[in-house]
Amino acid sequence: MGRFSKMHGLGNDFVVIDAREGGVEMTAARAQAIADRHAGIGCDQLILIGPSERADVSMRIFNSDGSEVEACGNATRCVPLFVGRDVLIETKAGLLDAKAVDGGASVDMGAPRLDWDAIPLAYAMDTLAMPVSWEELPAPAAVNVGNPHVIFFCDDLDAVDVERLGPLIETDPLFPARVNVNFAQIIGENHIRLIVWERGAGLTRACGTGACATAVAAVRRKLVSGPAKVSLPGGDLVIDWRPGGHIVMTGPATHVFDGEADWARF
Ligand SMILES: N[C@@H](CCC[C@H](N)C(=O)O)C(=O)O
């Protein structure tokens, strides 16, 4: 039997497994089975906390479709709560410094990557005003914050058919690694409303890296000027980024319950 914790960041939910002293061997099929909301435990992402030679712990991230990915902002905020202290975390996206704050955590998410081949895109183009679009959507921006994001700044988010356009754009050949699709609207001074269709997980209540990527694109387009409040269906994050600097993400992290499972059954 193996122990796990159910946690979430703004309703983006995780099964977190402590693999610091060995434990479960994770495969795409096993991650998908555990994440299944009907036949498994259920989560948007499966998180494996392991040992690290470069940091306090390592973190591996699996989407609910079983794909292993580089970054997850909401899960990163859960790690100090899971480990019981501030931590330096080794991820595929680099080393992330996560500090507990009242009710959550503040994380240095590193510097965004903005070159077309770092997103990655299939061919060279300006990532701030991409000369492409889908149906009625405006020309998007692209930002890599460890994982790939495309961001559409819309006049009226309620008029966007997120569940139809999200998967269409996620799997467009323009994005060779697929992409997380962010639909944003500026709703006040330094205030962004955001809905995210996540690569490999679909519509979630919040996406931390999506909030980071969207705030970066908004600063680059001069739509915000300073720390931005990003309001997602599950709640709010504060994202602070200045050109040339690191992204700092601050927001809640919640521990829901602990459980035990026989990983061999998955
Ligand atoms: N929910 C996450 C992002 C998880 C990974 C993403 N779906 C991807 O495939 O890159 C977050 O809070 O950032």
UniProtKB/TrEMBL annotation:
<keyword id="KW-0457">Lysine biosynthesis</keyword>
<feature type="binding site">
    <location>
        <begin position="208"/>
        <end position="209"/>
    </location>
    <ligand>
        <name>substrate</name>
    </ligand>
</feature>
<dbReference type="InterPro" id="IPR001653">
    <property type="entry name" value="DAP_epimerase_DapF"/>
</dbReference>
<keyword id="KW-0963">Cytoplasm</keyword>
<feature type="binding site">
    <location>
        <begin position="73"/>
        <end position="74"/>
    </location>
    <ligand>
        <name>substrate</name>
    </ligand>
</feature>
<keyword id="KW-0413">Isomerase</keyword>
<feature type="binding site">
    <location>
        <position position="63"/>
    </location>
    <ligand>
        <name>substrate</name>
    </ligand>
</feature>
<dbReference type="GO" id="GO:0005829">
    <property type="term" value="C:cytosol"/>
</dbReference>
<dbReference type="GO" id="GO:0009089">
    <property type="term" value="P:lysine biosynthetic process via diaminopimelate"/>
</dbReference>
<feature type="binding site">
    <location>
        <position position="180"/>
    </location>
    <ligand>
        <name>substrate</name>
    </ligand>
</feature>
<dbReference type="InterPro" id="IPR018510">
    <property type="entry name" value="DAP_epimerase_AS"/>
</dbReference>
<comment type="pathway">
    <text>Amino-acid biosynthesis; L-lysine biosynthesis via DAP pathway; DL-2,6-diaminopimelate from LL-2,6-diaminopimelate: step 1/1.</text>
</comment>
<feature type="binding site">
    <location>
        <position position="45"/>
    </location>
    <ligand>
        <name>substrate</name>
    </ligand>
</feature>
<feature type="site" description="Could be important to modulate the pK values of the two catalytic cysteine residues">
    <location>
        <position position="149"/>
    </location>
</feature>
<dbReference type="Pfam" id="PF01678">
    <property type="entry name" value="DAP_epimerase"/>
</dbReference>
<feature type="binding site">
    <location>
        <position position="12"/>
    </location>
    <ligand>
        <name>substrate</name>
    </ligand>
</feature>
<feature type="active site">
    <location>
        <position position="72"/>
    </location>
</feature>
<comment type="subunit">
    <text>Homodimer.</text>
</comment>
<comment type="function">
    <text>Catalyzes the stereoinversion of LL-2,6-diaminopimelate (L,L-DAP) to meso-diaminopimelate (meso-DAP), a precursor of L-lysine and an essential component of the bacterial peptidoglycan.</text>
</comment>
<protein>
    <recommendedName>
        <fullName>Diaminopimelate epimerase</fullName>
        <ecNumber>5.1.1.7</ecNumber>
    </recommendedName>
</protein>
<feature type="active site" description="Proton donor">
    <location>
        <position position="72"/>
    </location>
</feature>
<feature type="binding site">
    <location>
        <begin position="198"/>
        <end position="199"/>
    </location>
    <ligand>
        <name>substrate</name>
    </ligand>
</feature>
<keyword id="KW-0028">Amino-acid biosynthesis</keyword>
<feature type="active site" description="Proton acceptor">
    <location>
        <position position="207"/>
    </location>
</feature>
<comment type="similarity">
    <text>Belongs to the diaminopimelate epimerase family.</text>
</comment>
<feature type="site" description="Could be important to modulate the pK values of the two catalytic cysteine residues">
    <location>
        <position position="198"/>
    </location>
</feature>
<feature type="binding site">
    <location>
        <position position="147"/>
    </location>
    <ligand>
        <name>substrate</name>
    </ligand>
</feature>
<dbReference type="GO" id="GO:0008837">
    <property type="term" value="F:diaminopimelate epimerase activity"/>
</dbReference>
